[in-house]
Amino acid sequence: MRRILKNLVALVALAMLVIAGVLVYVYGVLPRQQPAPDFRVEVTPELLERGDYLVNHVLLCNDCHSERDWTLYSGPAKPPLGAGRPCLVKESKAVGINFGTPGFPGRLCIRNITPDVETGIGAWTDGEILRAMREGISRDGEALFPIMPWFMYQEMSDEDAAAVIAYLRAQPPVRSFRPDRQLDFPLNIIYRFYPRTVDMPVRAPPRSDTVAYGRYLGEIARCEFCHTARVRGRVDPLPDRLYSGGVPFTMGTRTQYSMNLTPHPTGLGNWTKEMFIARFRVHTEPFPVTEEQNSEMDWVAFSGMTDADLGAIWDYLATLPPLESKLLDRAD
Ligand code: HEC
Ligand code: HEC
Q1: Which of 123, 145, 199, 242 is the most buried (most CB within 10 A)?
Q2: Residue-wise pLDDT tens digits, 144-166
Q3: Contacts with 294 (C-beta within 8 Å, 6 or more apart), sequence order
Q4: 65 C-alpha vs ligand 1 centroid, how far in Å?
Q5: Ligand nearest to the CA of 59
């Protein structure tokens, strides 16, 4: 009897030790990170222009970091741009931004990225902004919840990141406080495992290599993200389903699926490069629409992409293995 009791005590002690070990790992070691790099952006007019192009026509940061006007085609971001949007909470109806089912397990606020010192990123260093964008680490060393698509920005070149930072800093500061994230168990533990560090320098492929450059653009513009299936709970698109579409987006009462962009007949098989580029020129201004006619893809913002950039994306897509489209049940 005594021995059993002794063993039991030992077992409980061991279990407590293991739990303590896991807690120390999750809260003491995770998220994986390195100090924010000593990265200083030298602002030039060319850099600001590049940042304007990237933020407003390629990366579309404000499509998440602002409220959207869904009475207009492709839901343009509403001013004040970059000031954040109402938090996602349990009662949220259409979560949008591709987080599957309605309602969020906790509270997640898409934050103010204007240069306001108190409520935005005005007091952050360039390196801290860079680390948040590419490595998913907030200023205080906490993990950023991966609705922030830092995992799609990991390959963003130092040069392009500098342009984005220069542009963000040049915008008018808006005072708009968004509370910190508050995640329910087990999400509050899981999300700490996601962040990954990035080694510098990061360079973009040369533009003359249109296939490689197109792959790069498809990644940072999140074409790949919206047009590729993922396993639930994973952030990375599935490599063997790359660009085969079928990802559901719920808009009000309607579900819309992203298109297959591989060269399969159910995808872009019957399209030409000219048709592909022309598709982006159809709607260059927002106009009033019903929910039925609307699109989750921000065609109006993307319509500002250059022919060269869209052409590079096409050149890359044309090299993909043709896959048949499968409509998926859920987005995450
Ligand atoms: C798909 C939606 C989405 C897009 C696109 C997006 N973000 Fe975010 N971003 C988020 C969310 C959600 C958070 C908050 C994450 C959290 O609090 O855990 C966030 C947080 C941040 C933060 C940290 C702010 C803070 O106070 O901790 C920065 C900086 C940031 N984003 C910059 C950008 C930039 C720059 C871009 C464009 C290159 C961008 N984001 C694009 C969703 C997005
Ligand atoms: C926020 C998610 C999202 C992003 C980002 C996104 N798409 Fe889409 N895309 C969709 C959805 C949803 C549809 C289906 C609805 C529609 O056709 O508007 C679609 C449709 C398309 C179509 C088919 C249009 C047609 O006429 O049938 C093409 C081509 C396309 N996307 C290309 C791209 C490219 C290239 C990018 C990157 C520059 C991109 N998408 C980024 C969600 C997205």
Answers
A1: 145
A2: 999 999 999 999 999 999 999 99
A3: 70, 73, 74, 75, 251
A4: 7
A5: 1
